[in-house]
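User: Structure please.
Assistant: Input sequence and predicted structure:
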Amino acid sequence: MVRRAAWGWGRALKSALTYATMESAVHSEPRRGILGLSWRQCVALIALGNAFVATYLHLWKIGKAGALACGGGGGCQIVQYSPWSYFFGVDVALIGAIGYATLFVVAVIGSLPRFEDVRGFALAQMALVYPAVLFTLRLKWAEFYKLKTFCPWCAISAVSITVLAVIVTIEWRRLRAAS
């Protein structure tokens, strides 16, 4: 009986992979980004990773995670305990965790075959990413010029949000060209 169940999962996986490759071959306009993923799937993957990082930083700040893995300079602690780590009284890491999680959900739902050409999902991604880029510029300015320190976790987030802005723009241009 166990053998049959394993065979059934293998068959289901093969069927899903065949469907995924057939789906991309049917469309004349390529929806693929990099590594065989659509642009929205790339957004989801990056957002998920950053949601975990932001959640880790928030949990560390409220004392629910162990030691902060930051490197030798101690920049993460300086940034985490600075007044710049709050925005209207809310922890910036928590804002990032919620923002990245929301972006992940929008990207995953927008990646479903029936929604892959719906412009609303691209607009929602832009509405989440572009303000985050401006917010990140503010935070990096404060980190470098006000606090005169460097936080590797903040740098990862800054690079990621910049890459996300590029990917979201590419996705928007793909949808505009298709209509």
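The first strand starts at residue 86 and ends at 87.
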